[in-house]
Design brief:
This protein is mainly alpha-helical and 115 residues long. It is built from two helices and no strands. Keywords: Coiled coil.
């Protein structure tokens, strides 16, 4: 795979991750706001018959919030750590591949010149 194509693929993956991070951050904000509203409503003394439903909603919102935050952390860690490491490793592999190809062509050229 040519170096420029590998770079474009990695840039595309990083762009996709950035879009997902932005979407997840927006979702986290919305979930936090909704969770705060549900808890305020519960704390304000909603009727006892409404408590179980609000409690269930609160639990579901907290679970969704926990999942979204965990995914944000995962993507950020990947972007900061392994994304860069992967890019560096792929760039190094491409560099070595190109050096090998150049050496091979030089050897072939020298063999032709010597004959």
């Amino acid at each position: 795979m040519p170096e420029s194509q590998a770079v474009r693929l990695l840039e595309g993956r990083l762009a996709e991750q950035e879009v997902e991070l932005t979407r997840l951050r927006t979702e986290v904000r919305a979930l936090k706001e909704e969770l705060a509203r549900v808890r305020m409503s519960r704390d304000a003394g909603a009727s006892s018959s409404a408590q179980p439903a609000r409690g269930d909603l609160s639990v579901r919102l907290q679970e969704a919030l926990d999942w979204a935050e965990a995914r944000v952390w995962e993507l950020e860690a990947e972007r900061k750590g392994s994304g860069v490491t992967t890019l560096q490793a792929q760039m190094e592999a491409l560099r070595l591949e190109m050096e090998t190809e150049v050496r091979h062509k030089i050897s072939s050229f020298l063999a032709c010149v010597q004959n």
